[in-house]
Amino acid sequence: MPLTTSFYKSAIPRGTYRHYKNKLYRVFGTVTDSETEEDLVLYAPLGQTAGEARLWVRPLSMFTETVMTEKGAVPRFAFVEAFSDFTEGDN
């Protein structure tokens, strides 16, 4: 059976998010830390080449927090658009 994201529950919508510093990221969903059971967001920068591809995690509470900038308070990551489900091996 192929691995699909629809099989897993996520605390935030999967899709493209814009970081407050303007870089785009693909959010795959939330995962749970095995030691603390803290919810973490699993994401990757868009536009990576195969040689630089990396996945990142950040605590859900930090991912969804508001940060102060020159323009005032803004979300650390802002939802841009959803992406369709993917299966293992998709790019």
UniProtKB/TrEMBL annotation:
It comes from the Bacteria. Residues 15-78 form the DUF1653 domain. This is DUF1653 domain-containing protein.
